Model the fold of this input.
Amino acid sequence: MDTKRLIIVAVGGQGNLLASKVLGEAALLSDVPVRMSEIHGMAQRGGVVESAIVFGDAKSTIISDGEADVLLGFEPSETLRAMNRCNSNTKVITSLSPVPPFTAAIGRGVYPEIESMITLIRERTPSFIAFDAMKLAKEAGSPMTLNIVLVGALVQSDILPLSRVVVEEAIKLRTKKGFTDMNIKAFNLGFEAANCCNI
Done:
């Protein structure tokens, strides 16, 4: 099978690592070789958290600049910051829900305008899905499901060798039992949102 390289970027507390575990579990259930690595950074202070996941036969989890087949961003400025990993064929999926850094919150920095970031990302890739994942997470029952909303959008894009049914099974295996129904709802909301949010 063709190798697919995925970069996930988020800030601490957004559930990047759980999303990675769900996708890794789905790959195992599908008999797809998978390798994963994570960079935690300053996660406890709202810093960047990055995961690299390689599906298919590969010897390394390193995804160099320009090598990502898909970039999944949980926060728009982090998505923009990671665009160096992309090439002209990379699919970019991002939430438009901002998480301004501490410096912006105290007035010592300026958070970029969403429209400006969208324009810059769109200039770098012809394949771009962007929507307010936080709104859908709240609709699912909790802001904490933002990660699973975005997993749904990723699966709908049909880039990875993972079916909707298998990822739903992985969600059931990897998330806490009391939150399974909420996470499945979040996944389905993200899946459907990706149908209409290509921009």
